[in-house]
From TrEMBL:
Pfam families: Cellulase (PF00150). GO terms for biological process: polysaccharide catabolic process. Keywords: Glycosidase, Hydrolase, Signal. Residues 1-18 form the signal peptide. It comes from the Bacteria. Coiled coil: none annotated. GO terms for molecular function: hydrolase activity, hydrolyzing O-glycosyl compounds. The keyword Signal applies. Residues 89-312 form the Glycoside hydrolase family domain. Belongs to the glycosyl hydrolase 5 (cellulase A) family. The lineage of its organism: Bacteria, Pseudomonadati, Bacteroidota, Bacteroidia, Marinilabiliales. This is Glycoside hydrolase family 5 domain-containing protein.
Length: 364
C-alpha cells in the first residue's frame, strides 16, 4: 500500500514509556468509566479468544475502490460470497475491509445494511472482519456516484483517501466525520463478527505528516466515547513519523503494524513492538518484489502468533498485482505479481503459495 518501506519499526520510541503504560493499565479495571484504552489483561483475553488471525486486505475484484465496494449501485454480494469462499478454502479467517464516509453520508441506513450483508456473507465462511475508517493513501479527491475506470497497469489507480484534502479545505467536515464514526461504532459495537476496528490507515502518508495528528487524536476520542466491545487500533507503518507512531502505539488496544520488508527486517520490527506486551496483528504485508512473501513471512507470523493480513486476495479493478511505482501502461501481465493470491476465476497465481498457506492454516 505505502511507497515507504518500514525498516525498524519504532525502535527509537518503543521504550519511551511502554513499561510505565503497562503498570498503569494493569491497575485499571473495565468498570472504571475513565478507562479509555484496554488493559494488557483485556488485550490478552481478546488474543486468547481469537487465536491466530490470518487473511487478506479485501476489496472485491469488481470494485476499484471503497466507494464502489459500498455504494448501493455497485455493491456486489455475489462476488463477495464467491471470493470469500476461495479464502475459506485456503484457511483464511479474517479480512481487513475499508469503509468510506461518503458512502455512509449519501445513504446512511443503506450503507449500514450493506455492512451487515457483508458481515453475514463473511460469517458464513467463518471469516471475521477488521473494518478501517480513515485512510491517507492514494487519490486525494473523490465523489459519490460512478467511479473511474482503472488506468491500465497502474497500482490502485482509483483508490481514494478518506477524508483526504477535503478536511484541510473544509475543517467543518470534522463534524460529519464524528457522526459517521460514532454511528457505525454504535450500530456494530457488540457485533461478534467484527474482530477489530482499525481507525485510521497510514496516517501521515501522502506527505501529510503531522497534519494528520488532529484527526488521529479525534478518531480515538470518538472511539473511546462509544467504547465498543472490539479493540481499537491504528497501525504503525513508517519509522520517520515519530510523533504519530508514539501516539498510535500508546493508544491502541492491540498493536498493529505494516511491513513489506524481507524476513530479517520484519523480525526486527516484531521484536521492537513486543515491548508493549500486547497481541499483535500485521495488517499489511506481502509484496513479492520486495522479498515479503508468504513463504518467508507467514511462518514467522504464525510462530510469533501475530495476525497475518496480507495485501490482496483476488486480482481485479484495484490493479494491485502491479507494483506501486512500476506501471505497465499497456496493461499487460506483470512479470511478477506484486500482491494478490487468485486470478478472477479463482485460479491461484501460485499453487505453491496456496499449498503453503493451506499447510500453515490446516492445523489451526
Amino acid at each position: 500500500m505505502t511507497k515507504l518501506f518500514v525498516h525498524l519499526l519504532l525502535i527509537a520510541i518503543v521504550f519511551l514509556g511502554a513499561c510505565q503504560d503497562k503498570t498503569k493499565q494493569s491497575e485499571q479495571t473495565a468498570a472504571d468509566p475513565a478507562v479509555k484504552i484496554w488493559t494488557v489483561e483485556q488485550a490478552e483475553v481478546w488474543g486468547d479468544e481469537h487465536g491466530w488471525l490470518r487473511g487478506c486486505n479485501f476489496n472485491p475484484s469488481t470494485a476499484i475502490n471503497q466507494l464502489e465496494t459500498w455504494q448501493a449501485e455497485t455493491f456486489d454480494p455475489e462476488t463477495i460470497d464467491r471470493e470469500l469462499g476461495w479464502a475459506e478454502e485456503i484457511g483464511m479467517n479474517c479480512m481487513r475491509v475499508y469503509l468510506h464516509h461518503v458512502a455512509w453520508e449519501v445513504d446512511k441506513e443503506g450503507f449500514k445494511d450493506r455492512m451487515n450483508q457483508y458481515l453475514d456473507i463473511a460469517d458464513s465462511h467463518g471469516i471475521k472482519t477488521i473494518f478501517v475508517f480513515f485512510d491517507d493513501c492514494w487519490n486525494a479527491t473523490y465523489q459519490a456516484g460512478k467511479q473511474p475506470e482503472p488506468k491500465p497497469g497502474v497500482h490502485n489507480s482509483g483508490w481514494v483517501r478518506d477524508p483526504g484534502d477535503l478536511l484541510h479545505e473544509q475543517p467543518e467536515l470534522t463534524e460529519t466525520l464524528e457522526v459517521y464514526v460514532k454511528d457505525v461504532l454504535t450500530t456494530f459495537e457488540d457485533d461478534k463478527r467484527i474482530v477489530m476496528w482499525d481507525l485510521y490507515n497510514e496516517p501521515g502518508n501522502s506527505g501529510y505528516g503531522n497534519k494528520s495528528m488532529p484527526l488521529l487524536k479525534q478518531v480515538f476520542e470518538w472511539g473511546w466515547e462509544i467504547r465498543p466491545s472490539q479493540p481499537l487500533s491504528v497501525g504503525v507503518w513508517n519509522l520517520s513519523l515519530a510523533d504519530l507512531n508514539k501516539f498510535q502505539v500508546k493508544n491502541s488496544d492491540i498493536v498493529t503494524y505494516h511491513n513489506y520488508e524481507g524476513p530479517e527486517k520484519h523480525q526486527a520490527a516484531i521484536d521492537s513492538l513486543k515491548a508493549y506486551n500486547r497481541p499483535m496483528v500485521c495488517t499489511e504485508y506481502m509484496a513479492r518484489r520486495n522479498n515479503s512473501l508468504f513463504q518467508n513471512i507467514m511462518p514467522i507470523l504464525k510462530k510469533e502468533n501475530i495476525g497475518a493480513i496480507n495485501w490482496g486476495l483476488v486480482a481485479g479493478k484495484s490493479n494491485t498485482k502491479y507494483a506501486w511505482d512500476d506501471p505497465i501502461p499497456d496493461g499487460s501481465e506483470p512479470p511478477l505479481w506484486f500482491h494478490e493470491i487468485f486470478h478472477p476465476d479463482g485460479t491461484p497465481y501460485s499453487q505453491d503459495e496456496v499449498d503453503l498457506i493451506k499447510s500453515l492454516t490446516s492445523d489451526e
